Amino acid sequence: MTDLLFVYGTLRKDMPTPAHRFLSAHSDFVAEGRIGGILYDTGHYPAAIVDGDARRSIVGDVFRLRAPAAGLPVLDEYEGCAAAGTSAALFRRELVPVRLANGASVAAWIYIYDRPVAGLVEIPSGDYRQYCSSSESV
Hints:
Blueprint: E1 4-7, H1 18-25, E2 27-41, E3 46-50, E4 57-65, H2 68-79, E5 91-100, E6 105-113, E7 121-122, H3 128-133
Antiparallel strand pairs: 1-4, 2-3, 2-4, 2-5, 2-7, 5-6
């Protein structure tokens, strides 16, 4: 099991959320990274749709979990990640390749939106933190 987690929304570095405080207390920041895909605004949090062939990318942070077997279930619950094979999930956790800022590539867990995106607003920059702090979200 990998101990790396790619986060792109409310768990990102410097986000003022209780969930990020949990992540920060149980992991170490590795680097900023990108994955191929499209980011959407659901109104309360972002939703990532991963597409390795996409010309767009999602910006996020990679963290190394100190105890992934203990931390991932807590984060799964926060993300609404239901057990495999159920239809109740908001997100599903998968391993994806992440391109780090230094050009290296790593495999990391990510929470992928598991609902239809029709009607959601696309975040063109792929950067939720920037989107929240700019007029782009207005």
